[in-house]
Amino acid sequence: MFRKKDSTDLPRLELERALKRADAGGRSLADKIGEAARAAGADVLLMLPAPAGGMSAVVRLADRKADRFLEIRASDAGLAVLEGKEIDPRLLALARASVDVLQRIGADEKLRAPLSDAAE
């Protein structure tokens, strides 16, 4: 299910442990990944069908130095956490672009004001 070589990486380890806990219930995959991401302090950026079947989600671990992106891939074999070169470059580019768009929206008052008004 998870790789052992990264077990000293605390944020990733927290996410993997939270995924194991969330996987115990009968909830949807989106709920399990969302719960695990919140518990580990990660943001769910994308959830899409995986090319080989099943589902794939990309989460972001925000760090002061740089963002880290992890893919959580679900299939009949279970959940796998992938990082770096293991992630399809197109999926990683889409995740990075979504973060860029969200940051631009957050920095632009002209875009934020109508969104705040609509939420009320």
In which order are the strands of the major sheet placed?
1-2-3-4
Order of helices and strands: HHEEEEHH
Could you tell me the radius of gyration in angstroms?
15 Å
Instruction: Name the average pLDDT.
Output: 83
Characterization of this structure:
The chain is globular and about 45 Å long. It has helices at residues 10-22, 29-40, 89-107, 109-119; strands spanning 42-49, 55-61, 68-75, 78-83. Helix content is 46%, strand content 24%. A hairpin with a 2-residue loop joins strand 3 and strand 4. By secondary structure, it is an alpha+beta fold. The chain has a four-stranded antiparallel beta sheet with strand order 1-2-3-4, sandwiched between helices. Helix 1 packs antiparallel against helix 2. The relative contact order is 0.13.
